[in-house]
Amino acid sequence: MFTKKRIIQFCFAALIFLSLDLWMFKTLSTNFRSYEELRNFNEIELFAQTAPEDQDLQAYEKWIPSVKSIIAGARAFYFSFDEMQGDFVPSTGSETSFRLWDKYKESTEFRKAMESVYYLEPMKLSGSYKADYSLDPDIHSQETIASQVYFVPVIDENGYQANGAIMILVPNSTATGYMSLLRTIFISAAVIFLGIMLVITFTRDPITGFMVLALFGVVVIFIAYPLLEAVRLSFMKDGVVSLQTWKETLSPTYLVALWGSLRLGVLTATISTIVGYMFAFLIERTSFRQKKVMSTLATMPVISPPFSLSLSIILLFGNNGLISKQLLHLNTSIYGLGGLTLVEVIGMFPIAFMTISGVLRQIDSTVEDASLDLNATKWHTFKSITLPLSAPGIVSAWLLVFTNSLADFANPLLLSGDYRVLSTEAYMLVTGRSNLSAGSAISFLLLMPTITAFLIQRQWVAKKSYVTVTGKPSTTLTELTNKPVRVSLEVVSWTFIGFIVALYLTIVAGCFVVNWGIDYSFTLANWGEALSRGWTAIRDTVTLAAIATPIAGLLAMLTAMLVVRKKFPGKRLLETLIMTPYAIPGTLIGISYILAFNKPPLLLVGTGAIIVINYVIRELPVGVENGITALHQIDPAIEESAADLGADVTTVFRTIVLPLIRPAFLSSMSYTFVRSMTAVSAIIFLISARWNHLTVLIFNFSENLRFGLASVLSTILIVIVLMVWALMQVLVKDDKLTQKTISTR
């Protein structure tokens, strides 16, 4: 494949294209610079002709600032001509211009410029000069900017001599922006051409090669590039490389918040794993009858808005809560670590439940039967066999919940009180102080434990397996509990589920209350006001989620097919990068996208496209995992047979693979839609006046104590999500062949 002839062909084609690419870039950039210089000269000369006829200094003080209406962002300084001295004397104008003049007035170029205007010839200085525009702040520029410097004479009415001279600074912003765009276009053209040539020259399957290149492009542009921009900004201070931001980030103030996040994560993960194991064991390894009902209710928190439970807790146990204040007259506060842990456990134990359920379902009970046949007790069998065999699932569940808890954003904003966590600190720095660099640094500080937990889960736990091998699959599982134990588990589980249901019913009740905590009178006014103020947000949220859902689903399945079925250089790297967004806190993604896509060439901030991209990238890892799991269950011989008959990769995927992985595909899409509808952490940074999001509006209402409006919109959101989730579950049919029954001994 990498023959000498092909390498020479590739190098020759690359050399020709790169030469043409570079020549076109230099030609266009030179022409633009010439055009820009000529245009500025013409506009500046026209400006000089509008100088006041009299030599009154006050008239010049009013006239000089008007240069900004001629050239955006420009600064000017006027020099009057002193006939006694026979030289130009600084008179009035911008402080920015004067400081630059005072710094370079003795230089050769500045002297030549003053001599040139003495002879009525305008002059542009070569190169650029950095000027401190903060001395004359306006809405356009408040920092040090590289600028072009022009000197033009102010000619008397006879046109024979100079009454004065003007020094004008023109920021390079326009030229810099154009050159940056031009450079990006030509670099992109070179990269695309080289990629195409690599695929055509060195691969036997060009379609696969192009798909891999496209995926790497998506990963680089929407994952690697934004994160690198955030890293770069965290090491910048006032436009120069500095460690000051990181020194502030590693101060005791934020280390306390880091410890708070870690403590909250450990508590949440530990309790959630215990509760999740209890539910999983009850459903998968006992003869409990209401399994489907229990399983459905147990997954409710994971498909509902992340802070809806916080809203319920506030309504019931807040400062004016129905139970805490109105019924029990307690002075205790739900705000802080205790209340926050409670809400996160309720919201995240389904992750542990679903993870551990899959592990318990796959355990072959023949080993347990053998233990019981040897007169071991059920407790001893569970302790020595079942629990160790489920250890990978337990550890994986703990790590996943820990990662999600650290990245949680909405619940701490509502319930943390005086308890500090890093996710909210980053949000406050960005929104409250407009300090993106500090927000980036704090988000990266939070990323360290989340990515560590994620990598442990991926690299260590995923490789651990306790496999029980038998001659044929087992269709029965032995119940390892006595009736009293099972009944106890049922009582505890139903109590827990009852509390969850009560929380959701509280949200519904809040829709019909005038003012929760003060006036519990029945009203329908909340619905009218909420719908009138929230209809646009509802429409935008559903529209954007509906656009993102099929894109994420198809992209996930294509990625899974490439990872499982194809061999190509960089496969491991591609898979790792695609899975990385699962471990990245939403605050970091939101900040990174603002930094990366709020400037040319990809000016996406404020558009619906950036929200859709965020949905796709954030939920892609789960879809890819579902696809990989499904493809491992399909015999590759089916696809190979189709390929032998002449079908290309796309045809095989469309006609064979996609129908076979339909359940995984639909599950991936339903998950993407649900998570898109309920997203908040990254979205809160990316919304705009044009595109709003329902969760952000609910959060704003909750923060402003408009609980009635928040309850109405939360109820609407939950109903939409449940309808779509139920539809997808109907479309995804259970495989009856893999279901197991519980036998008692």
Structure commentary:
- With 745 residues, this protein is α+β, with helices and mostly antiparallel strands.
- It has 2 domains: 122 residues, GAF domain (Beta-Lactamase), CATH 3.30.450; 482 residues, MetI-like (MetI-like fold), CATH 1.10.3720.10.
- It contains 30 helices and 14 strands.
- Strands 1, 2, 3, 4, 5 and 6 form a 6-stranded antiparallel sheet that branches. A two-stranded antiparallel ribbon has the order 7-8.
- The longest helix is centred in the first third of the chain and has 46 residues.
- About 1% of the residues have low confidence.
Question: Quick recap of the structure?
Answer:
Helix content is 67%, strand content 9%.
Mean pLDDT: 81
Shape: globular
Q: Helical stretch count?
A: 30
Question: Remind me, CATH topology of the largest domain?
Answer: MetI-like fold
Structural domains: how many: 2
Main β-sheet, in a few words? 6 strands, antiparallel
Assembly annotation:
single chain
Distance between the termini: 62 Å
Question: What's the gyration radius in Å?
Answer: 33 Å
Strand content: 5-15%
Query: Which percent range fits the helix content?
Result: 55-70%
How many individual β-strands? 14
Stretches where pLDDT falls below 50 for ≥5 residues?
A: 465-473
**Highest-level CATH class of the largest domain:** Mainly Alpha
**Strand pairing plus helix content: what structural class?**
alpha+beta
CATH-scheme architecture of the largest domain: Orthogonal Bundle
- CATH homologous superfamily of the largest domain, by name? MetI-like
